[in-house]
Design brief:
This protein has about 150 residues and is α+β, with helices and mostly antiparallel strands. It has helices spanning about 10-20, 30-35, 40-55, 115-125, and strands at about 65-70, 90-95, 100-110, 130. It has four helices and four strands; from the N terminus they run αααβββαβ.
């Protein structure tokens, strides 16, 4: 990722820091103006950073895992409770450590059914992990396959 850079390694580390700590990241145009680099250079380096930060899925969550599903999006007219509308349904798994929180995975799902929740759990969580949920009925059929 850092070979054949067209700018100093110090700037490269600064860009990685900016992208990883800003809540919504930074566009290549913002990076370009801040670091006085070409936009295409910033775009290609940002792409390399994102690929490096992507999970390999080789290390599933272990130990005690809290899993919950929730809606993201503000209130909408004529929509109540779990009615989706324009909202997105998210499932989140957080690894609990002795001294706080470890890694976490989240994914947008269409329905909070056992099929979709099971696919998420198989993808991100170890079979040996202890899973704590909010007792949503979509988790009930998964008790045979996971330690819920």
């Amino acid at each position: 990722m850092l070979e054949k850079l067209k700018f100093s390694i110090l700037i490269a580390f600064h860009i990685v820091f900016k992208i990883s700590t800003k809540k919504k990241g930074m566009s290549s145009l913002e990076l370009s103006s801040e670091f006085e680099l070409r936009q295409k250079t910033c775009w290609s380096f940002k792409l390399k950073i994102q690929q490096a930060m992507k999970s390999s899925l080789n290390y599933p969550l272990t130990g005690t895992i809290h899993v919950d599903e929730f809606m993201v999006g503000g209130p909408e007219e004529d929509k109540r409770g779990r009615s989706k509308g324009l909202k997105k349904l998210i499932v989140l798994a957080v690894e609990v450590l002795d001294d706080g929180v470890g890694r976490a995975y989240a994914e947008v799902i269409e329905h909070s059914s056992a099929n979709e929740l099971g696919a998420f759990l198989r993808k991100y969580i170890s079979k040996e992990a202890t899973i704590i949920t909010d007792k949503w009925r979509g988790y009930s059929p998964l008790k045979k396959s996971f330690r819920i």
